[in-house]
Amino acid sequence: KEHVSSKRELYRKIDDSALKGKWDVTVTNGMDKPIFEIGDVSYTQHDFAQYVNKNQVKRLAKSVDVLLKILYKRYVDKKCMEYEESQLEDKYPDFKTLMKEYWDGILLFELTDQKVWTMAVKDTTGLRSFYKEKKGNYMWPHRVDAMIITCKNEEVAKKTRKLAKKSKNSRKIILEKINTDKDNNLNIQQGKFVKGDNANVDAVAWEKGLSENVEKNGKIVFVRINAVLEPQVKSLNESRGLVIADYQNYLEEKWIKGLREKYKVEVKKEVFSVLLKESESEQNEKN
Q1: Angle CA(176)–CA(203)–CA(229) in degrees, nearest 5?
Q2: What is the mean pLDDT of residues 169-189?
Q3: DSSP 2
Q4: Per residue in 236-269, pLDDT tens?
């Protein structure tokens, strides 16, 4: 519903300066008559004047009448769309249900983030206490501390084996003595390995010392076992990802338990049975 007289009264306050983007909206101070309503929502002279003030653009129109016609149509269209959006949940029950599910989902996500996910990362004291109590769950299996030594040829392998036999010679020392020129004569991969980590390590006996030479892709490969490591507890840093995941599960269970103690859970059996029947029916249709 439009109030033409109120609209014209406002228009008389808007001059050609709006064509240059220099119109002063303060000349409409106190003008609060409605110029139109959509449903039960009213829009005043002041509302539209503020819109004109924000949207007065140079060269948008050749006259102020045309400018106002353009801006008024845009404003009305905008408010019609806003009003229609505000009525969607009343007009369409399925949409209302969907929006409620969406809202509840966001709420649950935010709460779970606060109570569980972020808490598990930020609560370092709680995480350490949880780890100390459960650290028996985070174990390294049998491992070896080993070097996988890849030599350019038989000659390089012979020189390297002599150096590698002496356990005091580290990876750094061996590389410095063998890779003395620009050629990459030798490559050494060192680390702690469990079964399945590396095919070369898996293929040799897990005993301290050097394995036999094996030719691979034209190169000579052998393994030096520095130490055989018995199963041991992982440090918190070594198992942090697993510990955080388990601590999150612990926090979630604790949170849900607290909610169940605080709030009574009542199941509507009649509604639940209907849901079960619908679910069974859908499953039968799929089959």
Answers
A1: 75
A2: 88
A3: B
A4: 999 999 999 999 999 999 999 999 999 998 999 9
Beta bridge partners, 233, equal: 139
- Estimate the crossing angle of helix 154-164 against helix 171-178, to 10 degrees: 140
User: Cα–Cα distance between 126 and 162 in angstroms, integer?
Assistant: 51
Q: Where are the alpha helices (DSSP H) in the chain?
A: 4-11, 45-55, 64-91, 93-112, 118-122, 124-134, 154-164, 171-178, 199-202, 240-262, 269-286
Q: Phi/psi class of residue 210: alpha, beta or left (left: φ > 0; alpha: ψ in -120 to 50)?
A: beta
In the structure, what pLDDT confidence band is assigned to residue 150 with cuts at 50, 70 and 90? very high
Residue 10: both structure tokens together: 């406002």
**Which pTM was predicted?**
0.60
Tallying the residues shown for the chain, one arrives at 287
Average pLDDT over residues 51-68: 86
- Of the candidates 49, 37, 43, the one whose C-alpha atom is nearest the C-alpha of residue 13 is 49
Alpha-carbon span 167 to 219, nearest angstrom: 23
CA distance 104 to 100: 6
What's the rounded Cα separation, in Å, for the pair 10 and 64? Answer: 13
Q: 1 is written with which tokens?
A: 């519903």
Residues 6+ positions from 177 with CB-CB distance below 8 Å: 163
Q: What percent of the chain has pLDDT over 70?
A: 99
3-state secondary structure of 266: coil
- Listed in sequence order, the residues at least 6 apart from 81 whose beta carbon sits closer than 8 Å to its beta carbon are none
